[in-house]
Amino acid sequence: MRRAGLGEGSSGNYVASGYSVYEEENEHLQEQMRAKASALKSLSIEIGTEIKYQNKMLDDMDTDFDSTGGLLGATIGRVKQLSRGSQTKLLCYMLLFCFFVFFILYWFIKLR
Predict the structure, then answer these.
(1) Which residues does the UniProt record annotate as the domain T-SNARE coiled-coil homology (predicted)?
(2) Of 27, 32, 61, 86, which one has the fewest beta carbons inside 10 Å?
(3) 62 by DSSP, 3-state: which?
């Protein structure tokens, strides 16, 4: 029984030039691996870009909330100033007005 070597004829695994079918398959698999690695690399770059964009959006939202908090704080400060002064009638009128608006809205929603 004789085994075929690299340069001897063509058996199932070797061609006449000594190039293995396995080597051919390995090259094909390497190309597939390169394509997958390239796709993975581009995907990770896109994910990084998206993360940077989302972080920028969150920073912008924080700025918006900070400015809203400043506006709300200023309004509450004015209400406190009203309550400290001798303008208790004005504060009572404001609270009655708020209750009146709330009652009208409640009534309107209930009838709807």
Answers:
(1) 20-82
(2) 86
(3) helix
